Every structure is written in C-alpha cells, then in structure tokens.
UniProtKB/TrEMBL annotation:
<keyword id="KW-0813">Transport</keyword>
<dbReference type="GO" id="GO:0045040">
    <property type="term" value="P:protein insertion into mitochondrial outer membrane"/>
</dbReference>
<keyword id="KW-1000">Mitochondrion outer membrane</keyword>
<keyword id="KW-0653">Protein transport</keyword>
<keyword id="KW-0496">Mitochondrion</keyword>
<dbReference type="GO" id="GO:0008320">
    <property type="term" value="F:protein transmembrane transporter activity"/>
</dbReference>
<protein>
    <submittedName>
        <fullName>Mitochondrial import receptor subunit TOM40</fullName>
    </submittedName>
</protein>
<keyword id="KW-0472">Membrane</keyword>
<keyword id="KW-0675">Receptor</keyword>
<dbReference type="GO" id="GO:0030150">
    <property type="term" value="P:protein import into mitochondrial matrix"/>
</dbReference>
<comment type="similarity">
    <text>Belongs to the Tom40 family.</text>
</comment>
<keyword id="KW-0812">Transmembrane</keyword>
<keyword id="KW-1134">Transmembrane beta strand</keyword>
<dbReference type="GO" id="GO:0005742">
    <property type="term" value="C:mitochondrial outer membrane translocase complex"/>
</dbReference>
<dbReference type="InterPro" id="IPR037930">
    <property type="entry name" value="Tom40"/>
</dbReference>
<dbReference type="InterPro" id="IPR027246">
    <property type="entry name" value="Porin_Euk/Tom40"/>
</dbReference>
<dbReference type="InterPro" id="IPR023614">
    <property type="entry name" value="Porin_dom_sf"/>
</dbReference>
C-alpha cells in the first residue's frame, strides 16, 4: 500500500525526469562541470572587450579631444551614488558647447542621462538581475535625425565564459523584424586560451534581404602580457598585444588590416590590402597619467592627466599628423566637489566587498 501511495502522490511530470535518459544526461552534465572546475578556468571577459587593455586603456581612442573643455561635477551622495555634471566646450567638433549629465548608481542599478545644447538626449540604464546576469539599455534622441536609436543588451557572465545578445533599433511595426541583432560567446578552453565568435544579423527594411556575418576571435593571457586576434567576415583582421613592463608602465600594439577589391580590377581583380599599426605606452605616476601613441599613418599623439589638487584635474591632449601637416590641441579642466563626510563614506565603502554599479 505504501508503494501505491508514493506513485499516486508523485508529480505528473515525473516521467520526464525519473527515467534512464534524463539520469544519464544529468550524470554527464555533472561530470563535465567537475572537469571544468578542475581545469581552473577563469572568465575571459566579453568579445567586445577582447582587446580592452590595448584599445581602451593604453591607446588614445577614448581620451583624445580638441579645443577647450571644462567639467563641473558635484557629488551629492555615495551610497547610492548620485552626481551631476555640467560640461562646457569651445573649439571642438565632437563635443557640444554645453551638456548636462546626471548619474545614479547602486550595486544593482545604473542610470545616466546627458542633455546637450544641440537638443540631443542620450540615456543609459543598466539592471543587474543576478550577480551574473545584466541587462543594458541605451537610447539616443537627436533632433537632427529622423529616427531615434535604441539598444538593448543582455549579458551573462559565467565562471569560464561570457555570452551576450544585443539588439540595435529593433522594430516589428512594418510587419516583420528589422534592425540589427548581435550575439557573441567567449569561452575559456584552457587557463590561458579563450576562443569566441560573434554573429550579426541586420535588415534595414522589409523590402531588403537580411544580411548575416560571422566573426571569430581568440585571446591568450600570459603572466604579464595578453595577445588577442579577431577576424571579421567583412574581410578585416585585427591583432593586439599588451604587456605590463613594470608596476607603473604599460605598452600595447594594435594592428588593423582590411582586405578589399582593388579599384577598377573587376570581379577577378586583385585584393587591395590596407592596414594601420599603432604603438602606445601608458605611464601611471602618483598623481598623473601619461599616454602616448604613434601609428603607421604618420600620427603622433599624447594625453596627460594630472591632478593638481584633490578636486581639480587638468588634461592636455595633442595630436600631430605628419603626412597631412595638421595638428590638434586640447585642454580640459575638471572640478569635482563633494562634502568631507561623503568622502569618508566612499573610503569605508571601498573597504567592503560590494558589487560595483552594472556599468
């Protein structure tokens, strides 16, 4: 009678789990998970940041500017983080004359918005659902453009892999899916080697055929150096090398090579190869950071950030193009204000193991 009662009280879905096939799959999965843990694999980062140490930390792509710039920042609270910033610029083609930016962030929520004098609005909003799963959004509205840009990304960070799915300006109002969808996956196969791929699907309108592309990437992490390579389906190849020379000095090399049909060569003509190699170095001093780079196109640039006082930071940028005989100069002043009690709270928060905002 006891056996009959146990069978009758079991769930109707027990047949899907209490069988030889599901048990074998569960045992196989558990065995693979144990072997992966024994390999000592680490999270390799994401495909978008596969060359972050060189392209975003050492080289000047994210730091070069021209003209005069002044940033006035005011921190109202640390936990949660709330900050307002006024930006003034003059003589710059990339920066607006005036910009107001607000930032709010906790360990699970990050929100930032920027409104410029040219009536453009850009907003970022990130939400951390779990310690490993984050949703990132970005919206850009510009009066000079007919359509707004919306980007939604879901990113999952595993113990030894990272996966993300991104949609740029998706729409189904025309009766079908249009926009750009990007999916990427990066997996550590050994403690030093990581392999990944990225797929792109895009369709401008229903009257056009969708286009797809697949890219491959690899990353090798040494003791004090990192090398990465990425091949794009459009016919371009990128390679980078980063090395930590000392506690305060970092160096990097980035090479970008594009393959395209030669002009006027016809369908069976030759392939034109164009490429640029950039070498950069970064010095971290006690109160300043110095970056310099030179590339094969004849450009030489430097950026110096120096904190002259706790609330004041000066930034000097310069770039010279030897072949075109042109140059750019930039000078920025950043003033940051925060009460002393907030600075003490920030120092105490740094000593605690808190998750940073999902930026």
């Amino acid at each position: 009678m006891a056996l009959v009662e146990e069978k009758s009280s079991s769930s109707p879905l027990a047949l899907l789990t209490d069988n030889a096939i599901s048990a074998a799959l569960s045992d196989t999965y558990s065995t693979l998970q144990e072997r992966r843990k024994l390999l000592g694999l680490e999270n390799p980062g994401t495909v978008d940041n596969i060359a972050r140490e060189v392209q975003k930390d050492v080289l000047l792509s994210n730091f070069m500017f021209s003209g005069l710039r002044c940033d006035l920042q005011k921190v109202f609270s640390i936990s949660p983080l709330f900050r307002l910033q006024h930006g003034l610029a003059m003589g710059s083609q990339a920066l607006p004359p005036w910009q107001l930016m607000a930032l709010y962030g906790t360990s699970n929520v990050f929100m930032q918005a920027a409104y410029s004098s040219d009536k453009s609005l850009t907003a970022w909003g990130n939400l951390r659902w779990t310690p490993r799963f984050v949703t990132k959004t970005q919206t850009s509205i510009d009066a000079r453009q007919a359509q707004a840009m919306v980007q939604i990304e879901n990113e999952y960070t595993g113990e030894d892999f990272s996966a993300s799915l991104k949609a740029i300006s998706p729409s189904i109002l025309e009766g079908g899916l249009t926009g750009i969808v990007i999916g990427s996956y990066l997996q550590s196969v050994t403690p030093r080697i990581a392999l990944g791929l990225e797929g792109v699907w895009q369709r401008a309108g229903l009257n056009t055929k969708p286009e797809t592309a697949l890219s491959y990437c690899a990353r090798y992490k040494g003791t004090d150096w990192i090398a990465s390579a990425q091949y794009l389906a459009q016919g371009s190849l990128g390679a980078s090398y980063w090395r930590k020379l000392s506690d305060k000095v970092e160096a990097g090399v980035d090479c970008q090579l594009q393959f395209a049909p030669a002009m006027g060569a016809g369908m069976f003509g030759g392939i034109r190869r164009e490429g640029t190699t950039t070498v950069g170095v970064k010095y971290n001093f006690a109160a300043s950071v110095y970056r310099a780079q030179v590339d094969s196109a004849g450009k030489f640039g430097v950026v110096l950030e120096k904190r002259v006082a706790p609330p004041v930071t000066l930034t000097f940028a310069a770039e010279i193009d030897q072949w075109k005989n042109t140059h750019k100069l930039g000078l920025a002043v950043s003033l940051e204000g925060a009460p002393e009690e907030l600075q003490e709270i920030a120092e105490r928060a740094d000593t605690q193991n808190q998750l940073p905002p999902p930026i």
